[in-house]
Amino acid sequence: MTKSLVICVDDDEQLLAAVSRSLRRDPALEVRSTTEPGQVIEWVVAEEVAVLVSDYEMPQMTGAQLAGKVKRLRPETVRILLTGMRTLETAIDGIHQGEIFRFINKPFDDRVLRAAVTDAIKRHDEMMALSGDRQRRERAAALRADLEAEFPGITHVERVGETVVVTADPWSEALALGLGGLDRKLES
């Protein structure tokens, strides 16, 4: 089983160690921690990061600003903010800049943090599945467009109610489209 990558960032090294230690209890998680938001960006660019757990108030940038950058780089990374100053302004900033999944108060409760990260992993997995569905639909649409460009009319099916209307002479039409080897012998 592949471990889900969780990145933790906080300028307070003791709090960062406590957050990381709490999350490392879950063997399904690969937990990385840093005090540098720039390091987070490097990891997000290079790897599939399932969850970002970030402090809100940091010297280089706010957690909301970091979450916003992460969202633009990898929208499926789920973002959680830890904050000691739970104000409406903090919440609005987090929502607008980074579409924050959860806010967690500092000091944090271990169970609350781990439950939030577990929920975030599930959300990440859902988003990845939807992303895969979208990519498959885009590939199918591109394939239909390529087929139609090469063989005009091949993707058009004429219907009358529930009945598919088959051309009077499909074999001649196949030859006209350059589909050699298709002839009446295939009917037997």
Q: Report the CATH superfamily of the largest domain.
A: Response regulator
Distance between the terminal alpha carbons, to the nearest Å?
50 Å
Mean pLDDT metric: 84
Q: In CATH terms, what is the architecture of the largest domain?
A: 3-Layer(aba) Sandwich
Strand-residue proportion = 15-25%
Structure classification: alpha/beta
Question: How would you sum up this structure, described in words?
Answer:
- There is one protein chain.
- The chain is elongated and about 80 Å long.
- The protein starts with a strand and ends in a 12-residue tail after the last helix.
- The chain folds into two domains: 4-135, Response regulator (Rossmann fold), CATH 3.40.50.2300; 157-187, no CATH class.
- A five-stranded parallel β-sheet has the order 2-1-3-4-5, sandwiched between helices.
- The longest helix is centred in the last third of the chain and has 41 residues, at 110-150.
- It is built from six helices and seven strands.
- It is of the alpha/beta class.
Q: What topology does this entry show?
A:
Elements: E1 4-9, H1 13-23, E2 29-34, H2 37-46, E3 51-55, H3 63-73, E4 78-83, H4 88-98, E5 102-105, H5 110-150, E6 159-160, E7 163-164, H6 170-176
Parallel strand pairs: 1-2, 1-3, 3-4, 4-5
Antiparallel strand pairs: 6-7
Helix pairs in contact: 2-3, 3-4
